[in-house]
């Protein structure tokens, strides 16, 4: 037998390409061999040994009833687990793999995230490369029945962006994608999805089309404009076939094919989602935008809000509708709270619907469906009682599901289901009395038989005058009469002893046996009939999958809009006005930072004529906060939310692109500069004149001249070719000169106040480039000896008086700074006395002089200064400037060497 089992396991394992196999053996699911060791380790299961053909096999098992949580744990770690069930056949049994549970098809999930399964197909085009290909994508969430398909013309970056919108738990690469190492690598690195291979046949155009038609009806593709989209159809067919073959039985919950809204959507790539900390914090303990604004009361509402944030839209009509809803809810405080309280009683019906379709819902699940359906009319009542909400989009949202059908289903469930059913579905107690005549009859008979047994003890006590007599039931003895040892002599003839205990004996009688059989018969027939009625009911609910999805989505949307209203009211947010061009924010704040500090609001104006802002200011002054708040206000406006500002006019953008510091990528082992340039390349390719671009310190990852050149060139390109609305924070002060060359570039700076030796960050954003004198303050903070700091102040004022510095531009980066480097100049003596502080440590560029301590310049340094003074920065190209600086540095180095 043992040999057989291991052999059978190994044979079944051959059949499947799943990572692990769980095989039913009686009351347990067992893993053998390597699988057992692996599962034992991962899930902390006890590993025993099974011997087979003289060798010992590791074995680990879980009880039948506890498989689900173990499966869930394995699948959430990214493994695919095949499950083989055992069947009785002619006295023996057989085992067969019935389903494969995978990350993208796991039904049992409680978290508030959607669980998408994705397929990606590439049409035509060579391997990899930057040339544009045509991709088809499909996304299915078996837990809610959502299904989206789309086609993308572009590069792998666009595919990733679309993937990020859905954050799939599992990805099926289609035939051509499997050999595209570049795309596969990026999917592996930059999504959390498990990559799974599915049969190529499923992706074949004709097969896939037939699968899609069969699932959604032959009109579906045309009705969502995907009739010609072979890629999307192939991806959709692949996904459907995969769901079918994994055998989770949820295909029927997918009732509607939806185009994913990429045309009306906003491009929000992976990097940007992370940079803006929309739903995941960058570091530990960081607070995300979602955490901050989520006041939803249902898990479906929270899930929808997350989706909105990751998938902002451009469609004005929809944005206006949502904002109207938020506005109405913001005004109707009482009705809003009533609404939210009612919503709190709703369950996740979209997920319950999928459970029902797959046949895994129990009676408690159906009660939850009933209770959620009951929420709908109560919400309608709450809204009808409120003048603000009566004619608002909230009323429209609630009018979407077929209310009569919902009420009918609720009524049917209410009539049928018992009030407090057990978790199992086989033991009866599921169905209410009065629902089915046959069942009522069985219940009557059952109860009469039970009554007879209940009264038996009293009757027997009286009849035979035995005081210590009781009745009971257990598994081995069935029903019995028990008499205490002191009275066993009184026991009448007709009692048959069946057991002798320490203090008592157990008996039965013919009549009791008869009644016992009756009770067992009733029990069995009753639970069979209840199960049958329950299954009919569950079928009925499963058939209403589309209705339940409608209800679920309507409730989720109400919850989401109410949540946005709650936040708007409690944080004094304002409704953004959607305009045709530009971005004008009055008193804008950062939605997350404003919760943590006393926030100083700032204005921002981008127009056709002033579309590119160079943002300067000392470190920590608030540059990146200002830029991020701009992106977040735009994004919030484009999910239909109010925004943290006194007023805001927003022209919806087609994409938000960011490039900021790359700490996390460093950890992945790519060079910062390479990552930075790859992202910059992506932005320059993808952004349009309707996009918003945020660049924080681009060009920092390389040697300074390269950095400035790239930043300069990128700015020109963004300004002249892409024409995107751009905010560009830089510590290259040279770049503030761009405003003189390019018409639509303007300088702003985050102000700081220098009084005496103190710098106070004012956090206000003002016109014009920054005053660069903070460098001295930073040198002071960094521990540069006081004589040097003091002397540098003198030098600075001298130089300012000569206007030399204004002409030269900043020395705030290290190489330009080297011209006046503390470490290489005549200050060397005193600087070294402080431990040889290097220019690098004086991060925010410091201006000092190549002077001797007594203040007299050596002749070479003087000639360099003259040259600096003579240079007209406005008429010299950046490249020329750089080469001159290089020359000056060389001359100063020579001076030093002479000493
Ligand atoms: P920078 O990008 O210039 O180095 P940050 O934007 O990171 O500076 O800002 C540094 C800190 O200053 C932030 O963590 C925040 O706490 C604070 N801060 C920024 N802007 C404001 C503001 N407008 N009002 C209040 N505090 C702010």
TrEMBL record:
Pfam families per record: MutS_I, MutS_II, MutS_III, MutS_IV, MutS_V
GO annotation (BP), single: mismatch repair
Domain called DNA mismatch repair proteins mutS family: residue spans: 691-707
GO molecular function annotation: ATP binding; ATP-dependent DNA damage sensor activity; damaged DNA binding; mismatched DNA binding
Coiled-coil stretches noted in the UniProt entry, renumbered to this chain: none
Chain spans, region Disordered: 827-863
Similarity remark: Belongs to the DNA mismatch repair MutS family.
Name the record gives this protein: DNA mismatch repair protein MutS
UniProt organism field: Halococcus saccharolyticus DSM 5350
């Amino acid at each position: 037998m043992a040999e057989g089992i291991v052999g059978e396991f190994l044979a079944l394992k051959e059949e499947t390409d799943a990572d692990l196999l769980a095989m039913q053996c009686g009351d347990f699911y067992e893993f053998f061999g390597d699988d057992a060791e692996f599962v034992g380790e991962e899930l902390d299961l006890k590993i025993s040994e099974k011997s087979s053909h003289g060798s010992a096999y590791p074995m680990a098992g879980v009880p039948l009833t506890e498989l689900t949580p173990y499966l869930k744990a394995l699948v959430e770690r990214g493994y695919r687990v095949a499950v083989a069930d055992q069947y009785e056949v002619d006295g023996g049994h057989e085992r067969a793999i019935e389903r494969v549970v995978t990350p993208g098809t796991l039904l049992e999930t409680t978290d508030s995230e959607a669980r998408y399964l994705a397929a990606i197909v590439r049409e035509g085009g060579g391997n990899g490369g930057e040339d544009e290909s045509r991709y088809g994508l499909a996304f299915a969430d078996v837990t809610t029945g959502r299904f989206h398909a789309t086609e993308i013309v572009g590069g792998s970056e666009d595919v990733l962006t679309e993937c990020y919108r859905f954050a799939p738990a599992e990805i099926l690469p289609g035939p051509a994608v499997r050999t595209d190492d570049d795309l596969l690598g990026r999917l592996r690195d930059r999504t959390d999805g498990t990559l799974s291979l599915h049969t190529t046949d499923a992706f074949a155009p004709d097969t896939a089309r037939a699968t899609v038609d069969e699932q959604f009806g032959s009109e579906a593709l045309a009705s969502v404009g995907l009739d010609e989209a072979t890629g999307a159809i192939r991806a959709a067919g692949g996904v459907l076939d995969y769901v079918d073959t994994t055998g989770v039985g949820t295909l029927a919950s997918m009732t509607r094919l939806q185009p994913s809204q990429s045309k009306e959507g906003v491009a929000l790539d992976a990097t940007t989602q992370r940079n803006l900390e929309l739903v995941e914090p960058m570091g530990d303990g960081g607070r995300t935008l979602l955490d901050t604004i989520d006041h939803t009361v249902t898990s479906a509402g929270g899930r929808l809000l997350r989706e909105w944030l990751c998938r902002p839209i451009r469609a004005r009509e929809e944005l206006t509708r949502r904002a109207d809803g938020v506005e109405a809810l913001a005004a109707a405080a009482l009705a809003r709270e009533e609404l939210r309280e009612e919503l709190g009683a709703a369950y996740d019906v979209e997920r319950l619907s999928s459970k029902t379709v797959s046949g895994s819902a129990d009676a408690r699940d159906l009660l939850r469906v009933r209770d959620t359906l009951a929420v709908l009319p109560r919400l309608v009542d709450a809204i009808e009682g409120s003048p603000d909400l009566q004619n608002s989009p909230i009323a429209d949202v609630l009018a979407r599901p077929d209310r009569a059908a919902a009420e009918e289903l609720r009524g049917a469930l209410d009539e049928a289901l018992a009030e407090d059913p057990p978790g199992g579905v086989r033991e009866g107690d599921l169905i209410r009395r009065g629902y089915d005549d046959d069942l009522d009859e069985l219940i009557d008979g059952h109860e009469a038989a039970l009554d007879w047994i209940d009264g038996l003890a009293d009757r027997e006590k009286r009849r035979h005058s035995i005081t210590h007599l009781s009745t009971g039931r257990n598994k081995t003895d069935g029903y019995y009469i028990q008499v205490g040892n002191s009275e066993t002599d009184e026991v009448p003839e007709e009692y048959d002893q069946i057991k002798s205990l320490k203090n008592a004996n157990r008996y039965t009688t013919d009549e009791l046996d008869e009644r016992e059989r009756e009770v067992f018969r009733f029990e069995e027939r009753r639970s069979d009939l209840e199960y049958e009625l329950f299954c009919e009911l569950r079928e009925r609910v499963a058939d209403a999958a589309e209705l339940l999805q409608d209800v679920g989505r309507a409730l989720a949307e109400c919850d989401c809009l109410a949540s946005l209203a709650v936040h708007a009211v409690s944080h004094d947010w304002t409704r953004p006005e959607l305009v045709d061009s530009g971005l004008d924010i009055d008193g804008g704040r950062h939605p997350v930072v404003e919760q943590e500090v006393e926030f100083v609001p700032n204005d921002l104006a981008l127009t056709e004529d002033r579309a590119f802002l160079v943002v300067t200011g000392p470190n920590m002054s608030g540059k990146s906060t200002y830029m991020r708040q701009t992106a977040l206000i735009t994004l919030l406006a484009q999910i239909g939310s109010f925004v943290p500002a006194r007023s805001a006019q927003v022209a919806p953008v087609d994409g938000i692109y960011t490039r900021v510091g790359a700490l996390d990528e460093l950890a992945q082992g790519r060079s910062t500069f390479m990552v930075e340039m790859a992202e910059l390349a992506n932005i320059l390719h993808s952004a349009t004149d309707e996009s918003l671009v945020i660049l924080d310190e681009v060009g920092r990852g390389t040697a300074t001249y390269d950095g400035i050149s790239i930043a300069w060139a990128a700015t020109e390109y963004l300004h002249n070719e892409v024409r995107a609305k751009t905010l560009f924070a830089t510590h290259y002060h040279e770049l503030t000169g761009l405003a003189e060359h390019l018409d639509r570039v303007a300088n702003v700076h985050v102000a700081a106040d220098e009084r005496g030796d103190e710098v106070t960050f004012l956090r206000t954003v003002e016109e014009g480039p920054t005053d660069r004198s903070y460098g001295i303050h930073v040198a002071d903070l960094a521990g540069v000896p006081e004589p040097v700091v003091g002397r540098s102040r003198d030098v600075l004022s001298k130089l300012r008086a000569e206007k030399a510095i204004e002409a030269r531009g900043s020395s705030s980066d290290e190489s330009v700074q080297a011209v006046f480097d503390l470490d290489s100049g005549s200050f060397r003596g005193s600087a070294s006395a402080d431990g040889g502080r290097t220019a690098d440590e004086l991060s925010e560029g410091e201006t000092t002089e190549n002077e001797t301590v007594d203040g007299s310049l050596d002749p070479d340094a003087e000639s360099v200064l003259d040259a600096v003074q003579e240079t007209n920065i406005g008429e010299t190209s950046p490249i020329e400037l750089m080469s001159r600086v290089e020359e000056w540095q060389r001359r100063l180095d020579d001076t030093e060497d002479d000493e």
